[in-house]
Amino acid sequence: MSHTAHIPSHRKPRRSASKLAVRAGVAGGVLSTLAMAGTASASPAAEPATETTLEMPVLNMDLGSQVSSAVIKAADNTRAQALVGELNAQEETARTGAAAEAKLAKADAQAKADAEKKAADEANRQADADRANRGEGRTQLASAKGSTGGSSTGSSASDDDSGVRAPATGSAAAIINFARNQVGKAYVLGGTGPSSFDCSGLVQAAFRQANISLPRMSQDQSSEGTSVSLSNLQPGDVLYWGSRGSAYHVAIYSGGGKFIGAQNSNTGIVERSLSYDPPTGAVRIL
Description:
With about 290 residues, this protein is of the alpha+beta class. It contains five helices and eight strands; from the N terminus they run H-H-H-E-E-H-H-E-E-E-E-E-E. The longest helix has about 80 residues, at about 65-145.
């Protein structure tokens, strides 16, 4: 075996053909690039290409603020419209309520006026009837006197010889005393006491003192008991004006040629002579 078999050679190893070809290509490319650069620097400078640039509009406002302001404004408008609507509704309600109250007040005033007119008409009718029947009553009383030949056989216009000069007693006294205690009080149509009466209300209340219940109306009161002549009256008899069963006025004979009655709104409750307003007839209930 040779003594130099394992000693490495000092010569450079040969490069492969493929590596040499790559190196040659790279070098050629570099040289070509340098040549083109030199040519370009030697030729006149070409004019730079002009580029067209589109400028976008610049927004100088704060979109967030603008949107927020618009929302707030819209909300304010909505609240304002709602408030206006509510005020209009309240105004309409107030107007409707005021109209209803005015209508009720007008109806009440009309009803009151109608009632007052009705009472006044009734009082005037009764006063007219009183005046119309006074002449008739006087004629009948005069006829009754004439039928007795002017003798003193008990004419109700004078108690000198009528047999009723003695004071009333018992139930009659209770009735007359009550009626007399009401003299001076007011006449009010429909009144039944204690501060005011109409004619039949007074008679009904007076007879109640004797535990006697009479109907409320003068027509019915004139139908009670038995008929008596005006020449034979006794204290406590019920006098009536008109015809029996349809009388328009009643009173109580108090004796001594007098009666107690609630005459009208002008005179109130009075005790007067029969000649002041002669009755048409009388009934005895006691």
